[in-house]
Amino acid sequence: MSDAFEEIQAIKIKRNSYREKLQKRKRERHELYTLTSTPVSSALTAESACPDSNASSRSDHSEYERDVLCILHDSLPSLPITSADLIDQLRKNLNADISSSDIHKILEKLAAQDIIKIKEVTENGVFGYTVLSVTESQSSCQSQSDDTENAESIEMSELNDHVPPEKQAKVDKKNTEDIMSLISMPTIREKESKKVGEQILDLLSKQTSKEKSLAERFRSQGGAQVMEFCPHGTKVDCMKLNGGPGFAEKCKKLHFKKIIQSHTDESLGDCSFLNTCFHMDTCKYVHYEVDGPTAQPKEINDSDSPSNTASNKTLNLDSKNGSSSSSNVGSELTLYPPQWIQCDLRYLDMTVLGKFAVIMADPPWDIHMELPYGTMSDDEMRQLGIPALQDEGLLFLWVTGRAMELGRECLQLWGYERVDEIIWVKTNQLQRIIRTGRTGHWLNHGKEHCLVGMKGNPRINRGLDSDVIVAEVRATSHKPDEIYGIIERMSPGTRKIELFGRPHNVQPNWITLGNQVDGVHLIDPQLIKAFKKRYPDGNSMKPTKS
């Protein structure tokens, strides 16, 4: 609002400056006219003096006529007025040297034009007139103002005629820009509407009490239990870039040190694969290892005491699908240590496992690449017995390459709706983005996707984590451990199962299924009973005879 007001004031100031210039020009012209008319009048002869004096008297009468009309217009409420009063006002206000005969002639002329009505009077033997009314004084004054405005417009046009075309074009352009800037400025209503929208957005972006309580519940006890890598890499580089010797010891972040072997050639630079290099024993490029301890000294607090750990071992759970329930106080499920079953998922009867709140699968998709493990065909993936594991819950399905479209098809076929997608951005040992990935037909893949499918309406914690994981790559098909934390925060304390798992995937309160785990390791008594009943010999690696 203030900007628009300032623009309007600037335009007014500009207009007033034009008016001042116009008035100055009029005064100059009047002075020139006065100077040039004086010598001419003095040079006139006596014979020509009489007509000129008559003309000047006529011009004086016409000028006094306008003044008399203005006085009569101002004196409308106090009419009638005598000619003697008019003479007094003219002499007092305008310093006019006018006689009574002149004013009588002016009044007689106006009366003849039906502009005023007069009456002859004689006071103290002196003849005069009394003005009774004014009929057209307003129009006369209006015509006078119109004449003045016309004169001003003529003067303005004359002034503009003397302005150069280039300057006039610049002035017109600037005036146009001023008008366009005023038009483009937001109105008060638009500003108020925008302000209300910003206030609503600010309110919606604030955490509710429930969200704050939920975030506090899953906050790490004793602060973050991780160590940050130094951006300078090695201690030598950290010391060079940060102020001389001794600084690297003050830097509490993790550093790397070079692994220099007899066959290493430092001039070649760093190995593209670093700690995932398959030929580290013979590779001539530079490799690295962490310099110093990789864990912070752990402080013992009340939350880590054995009594608290034991008290948090049981949760109220819904025995039907493994989801937490506050209403079923009587049904409790122990959070068991890791359990696993060595099996072939193409033949395993998944009905013996019960229901789970969360399923995660990292299938061996046939992505038309040479892989160090066997793959499954598309039809075998579609025929997996995943629907028997859940009535409602979440399914986390890792996909890559051409399997991204097949994974979406399988989700729909198994009865799930894709509700989200997690991206794993891969980094190397030095915490840099990977540019030489081993996968990808056309571009080197530096990320992987995990589709999130939902069946039914499970009770989960929403909005706690991001859908992006930035983590270091490790062995082939070794997914980041951060995914387990995300799943646990979404569905804490519930039964979870991982399909196509390997020994490094086993987690507390998870059951891991895969053909690379070691044998059968079950702790849940109900699950042991059901599994032995279905597989008396404990072998689920081959199809059973029906």
From TrEMBL:
Keywords of this entry: Methyltransferase, S-adenosyl-L-methionine, Transferase
Organism of provenance: Temnothorax curvispinosus
Biased composition (Low complexity): 319-330
One annotated Gene Ontology cellular component of this protein: RNA N6-methyladenosine methyltransferase complex
Protein family according to the UniProt entry: Belongs to the MT-A70-like family.
SUPFAM superfamilies according to UniProt: S-adenosyl-L-methionine-dependent methyltransferases
Protein name: mRNA m(6)A methyltransferase
GO biological process: RNA methylation
Domain of life: Eukaryota
Enzyme Commission code(s) on record: 2.1.1.348
Catalytic activity annotation: an adenosine in mRNA + S-adenosyl-L-methionine = an N(6)-methyladenosine in mRNA + S-adenosyl-L-homocysteine + H(+)
Pfam family, any one: MT-A70
Region Disordered, residue ranges: 138-173, 295-330
Coiled-coil ranges (or none): none
Biased composition (Basic and acidic residues): 159-173
Biased composition (Polar residues): 303-318
Gene Ontology MF terms in the entry: mRNA m(6)A methyltransferase activity
